# Entry
Amino acid sequence: MSPTVRSKREPTPQQRRNRKLGLICTAVFCGMVGAAYASVPLYRMFCQVTGFDGTVGRAEAAPVAVSNQAVTVRFDANTRELPFTFTAEQTSQEVRLGETKIAFFRVVNNSDKPVTARATFNVVPEQAGGYFKKLQCFCFNDQTIGAGQSVDMPVLYFVDPKFAEDFETRGKREITLSYTFFPATDAPAATPQS
# Structure
């Protein structure tokens, strides 16, 4: 009997296992890279839907019912690495749960050239994030402020009446809405005037 001769094209069992392992490793690597790119938008979406970490949700319409219970909403404005003066036009507002309110913020570009920036926000206490809803906001959109320009920016919001029913927020009577302006990531950073 003559020994069986394998064709050069037919892989050995060891080669098949190695190819299978290589394909699995490649698929895992591609999946991890995809997850890394998707993690930021997915985390942002998760926070906006759940109010996690004090993230404010967006709403299409205000609630129909307005409660007699009220909370005080305080406003905070900050900048990071920008030649801006950024302030809240009001320090606080009394708002009944379900009532639509408008608050104004003013930003002044103190430099001699236009600056593009973006505002991010959060709410304290964090548990209130799921109940604080924005109908209109200047946040998460790039804002280009001209040299020396002053701009008033509105925020139209309400606090969901369910705020009073949640065991984590029941009895809390104060919410702080905080905005921070950062340089837009795709715009060149401006230097403050001396």
